[in-house]
Amino acid sequence: MEKGGAENPNKINKYACACSIVASMISIIFGYDTGVMSGAMIFVKEEFHISDVKTGVLAGILNLCALVGSLSAGRTSDYVGRRYTIVIASIIFLLGSVIMGYGPNYAILLAGRCVAGVGVGFALMIAPVYSVEVSSPSTRGFLTSLPEIGISTGILLGYLSNYVFSGLPLRLGWRIMLGIAAIPSLFLAIGILKMPESPRWLIMKGRLGEAKEIMFKVSNSPQEAEFRLREVKKSVGIDENCDDDIVKIPTSAKSQREGIWKELLLKPTPSLRWILFAGVGIHFFEHATGIEAVILYSHKIFAKAGVHDHRKQILATCGVGLTKFTFIVVSTFLIDRVGRRKLLLTSVSGMVLTLTGLGIFLTVAEHSDGKLIWALVLSIITTYAFVMFFNIGLGPVTWVYSAEIFPLKYRALGAGIGVAVNRLMNATVSMSFLSISNAITTGGAFFMFAGISVIALTFFYFFLPETKGLSLEEMEALFTKGSHSKNPSKEVEIGKR
């Protein structure tokens, strides 16, 4: 049996990293669907002559339908496994892309967007959960950030696709932009079957022999693998010294899992209530602070600042994608060294400043009809700076933090609820930004997001403790403490035990 190689507990396990990279491919497809619509909607609006309201619905419906996908994905992944849930997400993306690429009218295009939205819900829930379950505590932040890198990669590819295909005839260009995502979806649905299943899910199903084989592959030492196996078995209700290949899960554990909805939402313990509050809260603020307004409507922002040529708008938008990708990558190397909490507080503090600046410069640019070059330049710079601060902390930490804090039996459901809130806020911002901008100006909208960011900063400071270095099985104990504790009481180095 292959046993994970190196003894260094802080070394990234190559097998676990490969598993997380493959799982993150589904996030690339989702990111592409998000980014490509930013430019495609310019040409869709031109061909179908739709209003701003219908444009907003087309942009935001993806996330409303993702609510269905995320809530369904939790139960689905508990029944069929994490791996097959990724297969389902890929097939749904494939179908949605084909429908959107066909898109003879607005209604069918909207239907394709809805189908893809369900796939988004599945992808956003399952990729971080799978990554967090195969990774060691010392490298969990890095590996669980890979889906967010996938999203950023996809968004950048979507922007580049907008620029490459924008020169094609109107009826062809945007259809290729939207339909081409079907190709990677097909390959992923086939390739994902070569991935191993999550060892924690296998233990939850009593398949200890398979779980042990995989756990040794994704751990850096036999000692670490044995420790992780004992911890998970104990959390599921199996004797931690049991060495059978297949065991029957205790009836008490099964009955507990059947009532997890009630336990999590209606009668949670104080620690579980805090975990749910933190997990839902971080997802709420990720999009309530306005990132989707920039991702989807950056061409509108640049138009308000004074950039009026469509191809120049799309080119400037590519800068947003490149900035997002660059700082997500930087963040993945910091998250396990600096910690989730420090990155989060630094990130949101920077967002408050850049959103305020963007509000000021856009207001000046709008009142000058785009004639003040300095206001145009500073509007673009602060847009990029906002994207930088978001992606150095709040963007990746949201997915790492919410995936790691829930106890095993609540993890899929908790992650699903978090993603549902995330998509609801995403849809709210996507579908209302144009109307809000028309009502209080584009600059005013960003002043509003700056105010929400101040509230987010306060929430994160008081309610989100540091999780760096703790095993998944220790999270509930962390949230039992009476303070937000800036540092965990102990940093676990499992490989040294």
Describe it for me?
- Keywords: Membrane, Sugar transport, Symport, Transmembrane, Transmembrane helix, Transport.
- The chain is mainly alpha-helical and 497 residues long.
- The chain has a single domain, classed as MFS general substrate transporter like domains (Growth Hormone, Chain: A).
- It has 21 helices and no strands.
- It has helices at 14-48, 52-80, 82-102, 106-134, 140-165, 170-179, 182-191, 199-204, 208-218, 222-236, 251-258, 260-266, 270-288, 291-305, 310-338, 340-367, 373-392, 394-404, 408-440, 442-463, 475-478.
- The longest helix is centred in the N-terminal third of the chain and has 35 residues, at 14-48.
- The radius of gyration is 22 Å and the shape is globular.
